[in-house]
Amino acid sequence: MKKQYKKYKIHDGVTLQVISYTDEMMVAKLWFVGKDARGTHHHINQEIDTVLSGKFEAVNGDEKVILTTGESVHIYNDNPHSLECLTPTGEIIACWTPARKDIIEKYTEEE
């Protein structure tokens, strides 16, 4: 069944909207405004971030890479990582496996 989840302003420069999830996987869209970073963090989930628009610097453990439209980065579980928008605006699709329970608990109210 199709569900539409609300958009949430995570902080000044990042808005998140869950697209869909199961216990095994999750997909969300993130909008960035300004040179905002999600901060270095890690979690038990594997993650793939794909750039829809804009230019981003992805730090994935010891690796640093610039990503533009259509490019992706794969982050293994428990690997320290961050993503910074280098353009005035940008959009990504993020996928996690297993699903991010912390995000589900806070950001999945239906519209």
Walk me through the structure.
With 111 residues, the chain is mainly beta. It has one helix at 101-107, and strands at 7-11, 14-21, 26-33, 46-53, 56-60, 63-67, 72-75, 81-85, 89-97. It is globular.
Query: In what range is the share of β-strand residues?
Result: over 45%
Record the strand order, biggest sheet: 1-2-3-9-4-7
Q: Which class best fits the helix and strand makeup?
A: mainly beta
Radius of gyration: 13 Å
Q: What is the average of the pLDDT values?
A: 92
The largest sheet is: 6 strands, antiparallel
Question: Please, what is the oligomeric state?
Answer: single chain
Shape: globular
Q: SSE string, helix = H, strand = E?
A: EEEEEEEEEH
For the termini, the CA-CA separation is 14 Å
Could you give the count of β-strands? 9
Helix content: under 10%
Helix run count: 1
Give a nutshell description of this structure.
With 111 residues, this protein is mainly beta. The protein is 6% helix and 51% strand.
Which descriptors apply to this entry?
globular, six-stranded antiparallel beta sheet, three-stranded antiparallel beta sheet, 1 helix, 111 residues, mainly beta
List strands and helices in order, with pairings.
Elements: E1 7-11, E2 14-21, E3 26-33, E4 46-53, E5 56-60, E6 63-67, E7 72-75, E8 81-85, E9 89-97, H1 101-107
Antiparallel strand pairs: 1-2, 2-3, 3-9, 4-7, 4-9, 5-6, 5-8
